[in-house]
Design a protein that fits this description.
Strand content: under 5%
Shape: elongated
Number of helices: 17
Structural class: mainly alpha
Helix content: 55-70%
Strand order of the largest sheet: 1-2
Number of domains: 3
Oligomer: single chain
CATH architecture of the largest domain: Up-down Bundle
CATH class of the largest domain: Mainly Alpha
């Protein structure tokens, strides 16, 4: 990913655009075809030389064109004919963003496949579901992973759309009117680069496109943070239902040799903030003066490459964590039992209402017994069995059914089939 954003690749794309524009101009009879042959044969650049020229002229495109001209000779007068700097800059940036987006797609597809495999692995691994951080009802670890699989699949679709949005170019001149060159030049160049011509432009491509791409990266990063935050909770000592792989020789603390910390997930969670900050900067770039200014330019030179490289890194980290994630089903079972059966409060309440009791009354009775469990740590089942109001309505068999964890999971196969993991 980093190589897509280094100067060598950037200037290579610039040179491709300039040569393609010359080819189009020659097809239109604007410049001699022999000149294009010379340009194609001789055109090259030197990054260090461009940097040296830019120190003097204070303009990157002029520095680039000057250096290319040093290689091409007299025929270089046909290069950049009728074009403005942004024709090159914005079209090249679109190419680089498209290249980066396609690489990120491969990353996401790899993450999706890891999630699919591990979701199936833990499809029936029962654990407690939590709401507000408090034990709710049983679920499975596979369902948690299936949820992340589905979200990753949505992120793939978001990124596909963002790539399509950014995959446009423009060769339309100083204010987008094609005053000094034919629109056919733009059509030719864009077609060769795998882009679509912008339907209308000013001197630049409009920055709502870039903002969509950048906010999509931020959304993906936020999903990764969500996954990482859940794993961080599951790795807490008092929970320990799952944890990051701890390699041989790895150390968790300079002071405490026993420590096994979720450092990678914490890194993912922290870095997602950078992506969101960069996305905010991209949103600020949408509003520019008239046909253009360059307030966006300095920002994009930082946030676009950084976000693409950063998300590539974050997806790699997340994939590695999930691929090697250590899962402890025995601790999941132990944690379900921590509340002495309270996780079955809803089935008991529903059983009472099914037998004719008003819901409000059933809720009141079940809650009274549940609160005693919280206070005394007694068995919820035993308290219910000693409550004549409950035993006067529910038989032992009916209580057995209410406390059967398999009832909570009878639709797991259906959910997996619906999400495409059957």
């Amino acid at each position: 990913m980093g190589a897509l954003w280094d100067d060598q690749n950037k200037f290579s794309v610039w040179l491709s655009i300039e040569i393609l524009a010359c080819e189009a101009q020659a097809e239109l009879g604007v410049i001699p075809k022999e000149a294009v042959e010379t340009i194609r044969a001789k055109a090259k650049f030197d990054v260090a030389r461009i940097d040296a020229i830019e120190q003097e002229v204070k303009h990157d495109v002029i520095a680039f064109l000057t250096n290319v001209g040093e290689y091409v000779g007299p025929e270089s007068r046909f290069i950049h004919l009728g074009m403005t700097s942004s024709d090159v800059l914005d079209t090249a940036l679109a190419v680089q963003m498209k290249q980066s987006g396609e690489l990120l797609l491969k990353d996401l597809e790899g993450l999706r496949d890891i999630l699919a495999r591990r979701a199936k692995e833990f499809k029936k691994t029962v654990m407690i579901g939590r709401s507000h951080g408090i034990h709710a009802e049983p679920t499975t670890f596979g369902l948690k992973l299936a949820l992340w699989f589905d979200e990753t699949r949505r992120n793939i679709q978001r990124l596909l759309h963002a790539i399509e949005t950014i995959s446009v170019g423009q060769i339309s001149g100083a204010v987008g009117t094609f005053q000094h060159l034919s629109p056919k030049v733009e059509e030719y160049v864009c077609a060769k680069l795998g882009l679509k011509p912008a339907l209308v432009s000013t001197q630049i491509l409009q920055r709502d496109r870039h903002a969509e791409f950048m906010t999509t990266l931020a959304v993906i990063g936020s999903s990764l943070e969500k996954f990482a935050t859940e794993i961080r909770h599951l790795q807490k000592t008092e929970v320990l239902e799952a944890e990051e792989y701890f390699s041989k020789g790895q150390k968790g603390s300079s002071a405490m040799p026993h420590k096994r910390n979720p450092i990678t997930c914490e890194r993912i969670a922290g870095l997602s903030r950078v992506l969101r900050g960069n996305a905010q900067a991209a949103l600020e770039n949408v509003a520019l003066w008239h046909e253009r200014d360059i307030t966006h330019s300095s920002v994009e030179r930082i946030v676009v490459p950084d976000s693409c490289i950063l998300l590539d890194y974050m997806i790699s980290l997340t994939s590695n964590v999930l691929d090697k994630l250590l899962v402890y089903p025995e601790n999941m079972k132990k944690n379900i039992d921590l509340t002495h059966g309270l996780v079955f409060s809803q089935p008991v309440m529903l059983a009472l209402t099914t037998k004719g009791m008003k819901r409000e009354e059933a809720y009141k009775i079940v809650q009274k017994n549940a609160m005693e469990v919280w206070q005394t740590r007694k068995s919820f089942r035993e308290l219910l069995e000693s409550d004549p109001t409950v035993t006067g309505i529910l038989s032992g068999k009916e209580l057995d059914e209410a406390f059967d964890p398999s009832k909570s999971l009878r639709h797991v196969d259906y959910i997996f089939d619906r999400v495409g993991l059957g």
